[in-house]
RNA sequence: GCGGCCGUGGUCUAGCCUGGACUAGGACGUGGGCUUUCCGAGCCCAAUACCCGGGUUCAAAUCCCGGCGGCCGCACCA
């Protein structure tokens, strides 16, 4: 059985410090991962790049970046619907201890539809109809709700609260202040990057399904009757997007249709231009991250997969070695969130749009950070191009931008190399670099390639004569000789080199 | 959460079935030393492992039970 790509990526991640299970030395519960030194750099680079592309350099409307609390009071999540929707009724068998989902047990045993019934009602049904453990016929007891949210109690009064199950809620909670404080006019966006928490039953696949994970999200607020869409929509209207339609899925098909973002709206497949704008933007974003469009598709979620208020959800799925997997969720949530929070809080969250009072609609692209990191790793991993593995990370994402090597471990070369290294370290540009003089030069190139170091700088005997060094490019392995005085700018410019668009 | 398979240094693994000679072997990697004038060269030295707990036994990496973790399938996945 050949070794799978996922195994290789996970091994590399462990070995070289990209990520590893949390509290490994204690064998802690699954679903938590720490980013190591290189992983932390990759994440920080990815987040910065995303903020650049979706917030700072956004010219179609204003996007405000906020940073909200991870702990949210019970009432917020009750109003949003999470308290009710994010829990499953469970019970355990008195004699064998197995745990079951009560609703499924009843449906299987009695063929009854019990959706929407309360825990107490379900317990009644089990008791009166004599539903028993399917495994050992034991009596069922200990009926309780399994929350997919982590429950907390806050302060002396032990007020009930949860770790947020998505970043989005903070944005709705801050909506009124942002519209006032920033004098925001529709359309405008609010972005947030941060942790979310879901107490998954079975977290799996390393960093793909976590109980604690990071999201990069935008809530884009707009007037529902705004058919012009974002400023500059024309610029992205020709972008080809690949959509796995509902019809195709109903036939069990896997083939996406390909059409222009503008046409997708015109043909009524994508509900509005704001959503289509993001779909097009995402295609470009991931292309820059080394994930080609042909390895992506937008899956139009089926009606039963989306909440009743959804105006259409399109998951951006990427082709991994183990199959297609969602890495961005794009949801048209209409006015649901602001409406329920108006009702829940008693605060009027409508907005004055050119003299008309209204509750704006919202489109929400939500990016899963860890999944994207994993996708980038898989798509940049190369075997066979060299005698060792090579990680062709996008240059802007790679954790280390340059490595400094003396050609040989000789005093005159190492001291010169360290001079170059410290000069780069001290630079105001704060470029991540490292110094290595261990083993042969070839081995050092191999070590650098394996973690995607963009450039390798070698100090040789000629350096001692004329203050020039060789610069080796990771992707071509070609070398150029450059002046030491030009190095800082060269490395700095190189790390912003984008390929793909 | 259910079912199946699995858990040996940093990584991959040999050994487990058929308990004892296992002071647990190897490869790669790592640290140190020598060597080395541009793509994992070579030599020497060193450190590091039987997931945790209980049981059976004169004796457990090996057999049994439980926990934790991993993989796969089902379920779940705003």
What tags apply to this protein structure?
501 residues, BirA Bifunctional Protein, domain 2, Rossmann fold, 3 domains, nine-stranded mixed β-sheet, five-stranded mixed β-sheet, 35% helix, RNA-binding
Write the layout of secondary structure elements.
Elements: H1 5-16, E1 19-21, E2 33-35, H2 37-56, E3 62-66, E4 71-73, H3 74-80, H4 82-85, E5 87-93, E6 99-101, H5 102-110, H6 119-129, E7 140-147, E8 151-154, E9 159-163, H7 168-173, H8 175-181, E10 188-197, E11 212-222, H9 233-237, E12 240-244, H10 246-250, E13 257-260, H11 261-266, H12 273-288, E14 296-300, E15 313-320, E16 323-334, H13 336-345, E17 351-353, E18 356-358, E19 361-368, H14 369-380, E20 381-382, E21 390-391, E22 402-406, H15 411-426, E23 433-435, H16 441-450, E24 455-459, H17 461-466, E25 468-473, E26 479-483, H18 484-494
Parallel strand pairs: 3-10, 12-14, 22-23, 22-24
Antiparallel strand pairs: 1-2, 4-9, 5-6, 5-7, 8-9, 10-11, 11-19, 12-13, 14-15, 15-16, 16-19, 17-18, 20-21, 24-25, 25-26
The chain binds one RNA strand of 78 nucleotides through helix 1, strand 6, strand 16 and helix 16.
Content-based structural category = alpha+beta
Q: What would CATH call the class of the largest domain?
A: Alpha Beta
What's the CATH H-level homologous superfamily of the largest domain? Bira Bifunctional Protein, Domain 2
Please give the alpha-carbon distance between the first and last residues. Answer: 38 Å
């Amino acid at each position: 059985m050949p070794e799978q790509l996922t195994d290789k990526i996970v091994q590399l991640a462990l070995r070289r410090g990209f990520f590893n299970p949390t509290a490994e030395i204690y064998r802690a519960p699954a679903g938590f991962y720490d980013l190591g030194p290189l992983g932390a750099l990759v994440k920080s680079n990815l987040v910065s790049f995303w903020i650049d592309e979706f917030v700072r350099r956004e010219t179609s409307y204003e996007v405000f970046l906020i940073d909200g609390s991870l702990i949210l009071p019970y009432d917020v999540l009750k109003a949003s619907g999470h308290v009710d929707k994010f829990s499953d009724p469970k019970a355990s068998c008195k004699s064998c201890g197995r745990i079951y989902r009560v609703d499924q047990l009843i449906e299987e045993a009695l063929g009854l539809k019990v959706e929407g019934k309360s825990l107490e009602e379900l317990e009644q049904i089990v008791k009166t109809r004599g539903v028993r453990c399917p495994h050992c016929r034991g009596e069922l007891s200990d009926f309780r709700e399994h929350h997919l949210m982590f429950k907390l109690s806050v302060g002396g009064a032990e007020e009930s609260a949860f770790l947020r199950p998505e970043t989005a809620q903070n944005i709705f909670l801050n909506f009124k202040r942002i519209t006032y404080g920033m004098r925001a006019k529709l359309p405008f966006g609010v972005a947030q990057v941060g942790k979310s928490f879901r107490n998954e039953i079975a977290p799996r696949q390393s960093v793909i399904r976590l109980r604690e994970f990071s999201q990069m999200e935008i809530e884009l607020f707009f007037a529902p009757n705004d058919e012009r869409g974002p400023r500059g929509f024309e610029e992205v209207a020709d972008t080809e997007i690949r959509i796995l339609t509902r019809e195709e899925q109903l036939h069990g098909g896997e083939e996406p249709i390909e059409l222009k973002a503008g046409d997708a709206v015109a043909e009524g497949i994508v509900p509005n231009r704001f959503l289509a704008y993001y779909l097009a933007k995402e295609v470009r974003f991931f292309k820059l991250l080394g994930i080609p469009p042909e390895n992506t598709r937008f899956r139009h979620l089926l009606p039963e997969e989306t909440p009743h208020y959804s105006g259409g959800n399109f998951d951006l799925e990427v082709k991994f070695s183990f199959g297609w997997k969602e890495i961005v969720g794009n949801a048209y949530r209409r006015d649901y969130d602001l409406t329920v929070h108006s009702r829940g809080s008693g605060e009027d969250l409508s907005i004055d749009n050119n003299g008309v009072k209204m509750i704006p609609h919202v489109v929400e692209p939500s990016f899963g950070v860890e999944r994207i990191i994993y996708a980038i790793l898989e798509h940049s991993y190369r075997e066979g191009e060299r005698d060792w593995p090579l990680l062709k990370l996008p240059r802007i994402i790679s954790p280390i931008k340059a490595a400094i090597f003396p050609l040989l471990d000789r005093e005159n070369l190492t001291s010169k190399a360290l001079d170059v290294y410290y000069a780069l370290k001290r630079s105001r540009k704060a470029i991540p670099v490292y110094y290595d003089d261990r083993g042969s030069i070839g081995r050092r190139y191999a070590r650098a390639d394996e973690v995607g170091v963009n450039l390798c700088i070698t100090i040789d005997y000629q350096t001692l004569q004329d203050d020039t060094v060789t610069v080796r490019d990771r992707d071509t392995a070609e070398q150029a000789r450059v002046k030491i005085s030009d190095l800082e700018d060269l490395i700095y410019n190189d790390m912003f080199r984008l390929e793909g668009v």
